[in-house]
Automatic annotation (TrEMBL):
The organism's place on the tree of life at top rank: Bacteria
First and last residue of the signal peptide: 1-30
Annotated Spore coat protein U/FanG domain residues: 28-167, 197-335
Keywords: Capsid protein, Signal, Virion
Species: Variovorax paradoxus
Claim: Signal is one of the keywords in the record: yes
Name this protein carries in UniProt: Spore coat protein U domain protein
Keyword Signal applies: yes
PROSITE patterns linked: PROKAR_LIPOPROTEIN
Amino acid sequence: MSFLSRTLQALRLPLFCALLWWLPVGSAQAAVSCTASMSALNFGTVELVDGSTPPSVNATLTYTCNNTGNSTESLRVCFNIGDGDQSLGSFDPRLMKLTTGNNTLKFRLFQGTSGTVWGSNGNAAVPNPFTDTMSIARRSSITRTTTMRGELLALQGTAPPGQYTDNFGGIHTSITLSSNQGSTAPSTCNGSSSGNFPFVVNATVAKSCLVTADPLNFGSIDGLPGMGNRDQTSTINVTCAASTVYKVGLSPSNGSTVGAGVLAPTGGVPGNTDTVPYRLYRDANRSLPWGNVVDTNTVTATGNGTAQALTVYGRVLGSSVNVRPDSYLDTVTVTVTY
């Protein structure tokens, strides 16, 4: 009996020592990590030729932080964004690139509704990542969301139409974090890396045109036969997206397809039904009528994103004038086809 008892006591000692070694490690070791996903930032189809700023758009960052340890952990986590595959070296503004060429489109990324540019730790140009702090109970998780706001810069009318993209994959995003046991979060988030949250920014620049026109004013003329022709000019300004081929047609209110209109009295002389015939031309010699039959008597040009001036050559036919004194007016419709 005495021998057996001593043997059992000897066997208990290694087992007891092993338990003492295992228990402290399990209670002191924390396993905190975060995962995240960002939705695409899609500006949609935008028209840029008027020089205005397109509406801002939003994307959503959804993130979950887990604590697999046995104690409450206070966490500081940073979500870092770099420049993107197509914007290498440009952080504010960042750049989307045309998928079929090297043309670029400038945009900015902000944290929610604030004016803070979304950047990353250690980046001198954009040093502010989105940062969050939280206290996570043992063996639990917390899920939250935040908004990223994107804005295109104004005055980018020279950007050619097409699809523009910047891809924030791989090294262009990261999650870094630090944690403490207890209720006080660390002052930095440089403790460890916890993956990334790739996303894409894209926009489609549409073919678009903007047109303005100055009045064609023939001034005061003699209303008697034989006065001779009265020639005047006007300017049409057309702004079309770069590389966009456009065709400009002119249509007097009488429906003429060859630019042969008539000026009608404005009502200053009661009962006056006289009219003044005029013609519209594409050339200074007034030999090429300007009408609205595309590719026959219209003017063709290629946009470059800035206003392009086209001259309208007008003529009142003096040989056809025999009208009462009055003010005469007509409305010409400018049609841009592209």
